[in-house]
Amino acid sequence: MKAKVIGIPVQDQEKALQFYTTKLGFIKKHDVPLGEGNRWLTVVSKDEPDGVEILLEPSPNHFEPSKTYQKALFDAGIPYTQFNVDNLQEEYNRLINLGVEFTMQPTEMGNVKVAILDDTCGNKIQLIEIL
């Protein structure tokens, strides 16, 4: 068994696609219309184009429990998911220069360094570097 697709609920799929590609550096993998303005929209790491796909999922607009859960996590400052990076300070500086807002600056915690950003689509995302 292995993970192929992980879902992240987003409030606006087009806005999410722009953020995840132009700011975070992912590349679009699939973009399939599903009707009612929804899409099967995935992005992947440019370093692993055949790796795990991130589904930019429109569920908060169509499923109230998901919307409530997403908002509760966001309001509490809890990241919805995390992405690993090789050099967190370098990635943080790059993203700050692109206008990305962070709710937590790079901070060492034991054998990791973490930072938390706002993906502009209703989620906090944690970046992590293993030290």
UniProtKB/TrEMBL annotation:
<protein>
    <submittedName>
        <fullName>VOC family protein</fullName>
    </submittedName>
</protein>
<dbReference type="InterPro" id="IPR037523">
    <property type="entry name" value="VOC_core"/>
</dbReference>
<feature type="domain" description="VOC">
    <location>
        <begin position="2"/>
        <end position="130"/>
    </location>
</feature>
<dbReference type="Pfam" id="PF00903">
    <property type="entry name" value="Glyoxalase"/>
</dbReference>
<dbReference type="InterPro" id="IPR029068">
    <property type="entry name" value="Glyas_Bleomycin-R_OHBP_Dase"/>
</dbReference>
<dbReference type="InterPro" id="IPR004360">
    <property type="entry name" value="Glyas_Fos-R_dOase_dom"/>
</dbReference>
